[in-house]
Design brief:
29% of the residues lie in helices and 26% in strands. The protein has 386 residues and is an alpha+beta fold. Strands 9, 10, 11, 12, 13, 14, 15, 16 and 17 form a 9-stranded antiparallel sheet that branches. A hairpin with a 2-residue loop joins strand 11 and strand 12. Helix 1 crosses helix 10 and helix 2 packs across helix 3. It is globular and about 60 Å long. Bound molecules: adenosine-5'-triphosphate (ATP) and magnesium ion. Adenosine-5'-triphosphate binds next to strand 6, strand 9 and strand 14.
């Protein structure tokens, strides 16, 4: 298909979480109609979309309705069942494609893809059977055992200090297919978001420096000096290689580890916009969600430009639960008085520990000023300094 899909037509999305909601907002702002397929009546994207198809992801009738109303379909989480994307792709343009999403759904496939692109990842072994378990090399300890499928926000993972602890850790994860990765000495973490169009042209955002706490993204910083320039350039080149190697169409995030010896190692990828790219909505002329719309619609991709230094704070459910059992709303009045504060809440009604409720992006003209304001907002919210 060569003709772009233009405003006035309907764009569909599999999944109704916050990423879908921000995609819907971006599409609607440009004059597209939107359709969301998500089983949850109160899904953040379903609540704001023109159409909400409230069925299971594999329900043939639901998929038929999505096809019926959408000119093209994207996805907002990587665990959309591959057969659903394949069924949709028979009738409509789907970006990213089922093949690329399937690679991202499986840590073992993902790592072989990285290696095939010449981008180094942490030393690892695949453990899908008791036999493979017995053959794990000693140099992978201490390691981190991760289920090959369905892990996110540090779920489906366990630290394994010694070889003799591995069998118990594997059983505790259900004895399912896993990878054991060597624990690496991290100096920092970073990520790069690229968007690749149907014509193969790739654009990217500046690399983000990310701080994770308890396996969940806590803070993203994007400004002059956030990363050594050569590391940033290397990360962008690697991300572009990885996207090309998948013949990817859409927005793709690649997460990296920066090791203490200065080397850059790829961690994983997300076949969609990413939490570490939320700052683009307030600090760039085009956001990662705008580019998701452009790639899906087959429009020529603009090269995004960052116009403000940015620090993003994730707002987890923990911030609502500070005072004890009952949830208490954070002090928005005070937070919104912080210079350069942009508040995004996802419309989730109940707060739980670790649940992503929203984010706050601080923008400004200098890294020093944004950092100072971000620390001020963090103190008001009860987020530990960084
Ligand atoms: P996401 O929500 O990003 O999908 P996830 O559940 O897939 O998270 P990972 O990205 O694999 O989890 O790991 C979460 C965090 O744990 C990393 O960002 C990093 O801080 C730490 N971590 C994971 N693997 C390693 C490793 N091999 N060495 C050191 N730290 C690691
Ligand atoms: Mg991760």
């Amino acid at each position: 298909m060569t003709q772009p899909i233009l405003p006035g037509e309907t764009l569909g999305v599999m999944g109704g979480g916050q990423l879908g909601r921000m995609f819907v907002h971006a599409a609607q702002r440009m004059g597209y109609f939107t359709a969301v397929l998500d089983p949850d009546a109160a899904s953040p994207a379903g609540l704001v979309s023109h159409h909400h198809i409230q069925t299971d992801y594999l329900d043939p009738a639901g998929l038929a309705r999505l096809i019926g109303c959408s000119a093209a379909i994207t996805t907002e989480f990587e665990n959309v069942p591959a057969p659903a994307l394949e069924a949709l792709a028979v009738q409509r343009p789907v970006a990213p494609g089922a093949g690329a999403v399937a690679v991202a759904q499986d840590r073992a496939q993902e790592k072989s893809h990285f290696q095939g692109c010449g981008v180094p990842c942490a030393p690892y072994a695949v453990i899908a059977s008791a036999q493979q378990l017995a053959q794990v090399p000693a140099e992978l300890f201490p390691g981190i055992l991760k289920t090959t499928r369905m892990g996110y926000d540090g779920k489906g993972q366990a630290r394994v200090e010694r070889a003799q602890d591995l069998a118990a850790a594997w059983l505790a994860l259900g004895g399912v297919s896993c990878v054991l990765e060597k624990m690496l000495p991290l100096a920092a973490e970073c990520s790069v978001i690229v968007a690749r169009g149907r014509d193969g042209r790739t654009v990217h955002f500046p690399p983000q420096r990310n701080l994770h706490r308890e396996g969940i993204l806590a803070v993203t910083e994007v400004h002059e000096g956030n990363l050594p320039a050569e590391v940033a350039a290397q990360a962008v080149a690697a991300a572009e290689f990885i996207a090309q190697g998948l013949n990817y169409v859409g927005v793709l995030c690649i997460e990296f580890f920066l090791l203490r010896d200065g080397s850059l190692i790829v961690n994983e990828m997300a076949p969609r916009p990413h939490n570490s790219g939320h700052y683009t909505m307030d600090a760039c002329d085009f956001s990662q969600f705008d580019l998701q719309v452009y790639t899906l619609a087959g429009l020529p991709l603009p090269a995004p430009r960052q116009h403000s230094a940015a620090v993003m704070l994730n707002l987890l459910g923990d911030l609502w639960l500070r005072e004890g059992a009952a949830a208490v709303e954070p002090p928005w009045g005070q937070v919104l008085r912080t210079p350069g504060a942009h508040l995004h809440l996802y419309g989730k009604t109940s707060a739980r520990k670790g649940r992503k409720m929203g984010h706050l992006t601080l923008t400004g003209t200098s890294p020093e000023a944004v950092r100072a304001h971000a620390l001020q907002a963090a103190a008001l919210l009860g987020i530990a300094p960084f």
